[in-house]
Amino acid sequence: MTAAHSSGEPPEHLRFARYVAALETVPEDEEAHLVTKVLRDTDTRMATSAVVRHLDRRAAALLTGERFVDWVRVMAGLTSEHPFLQLRLDDWARLRTVVLDQVWAAEELSTASDWLQRSIVNTTAVVPPEALRLLAARGRTRRVRAAARTRLSCVVTHDRGPGTNGAGPSVFE
Fold it and tell me: Which of 38, 57, 66, 140 has the fewest CB atoms within 10 Å around its CB?
């Protein structure tokens, strides 16, 4: 059992809160140093949790931007000894591939992690209808299949025809 701090919180909970707060406000040029420092904590599980929160927040912010690829490369180097963090970075890279409508394989999406499949159907970014159709039919969970069908019905409802890029005649015209 871990000794509790005077506040009643175990020390690892307090460190976790400090790490999360520091990672939320770290300047870009100090990010790598701080991630490395957090990952050196003796409580690997807690450190990994703090870093994955950071990776998720930063990756979401950078997802469609030019800096994403370089950032993932740096973070992958820093997390190379942490399989879960590597998997999460790989999933973010796959999500970016789908969102940017780059080349992706149906097998890759249908066998992707639950996290990635949920992220694809829940992202605020535009997702190609082909990816949504695939997940509606072959998503790993009922939750993913249902969310993909719901989102796909919204896409179909808002698409006003081929070649219009969704900007066809308005219902008000």
Answer: 66
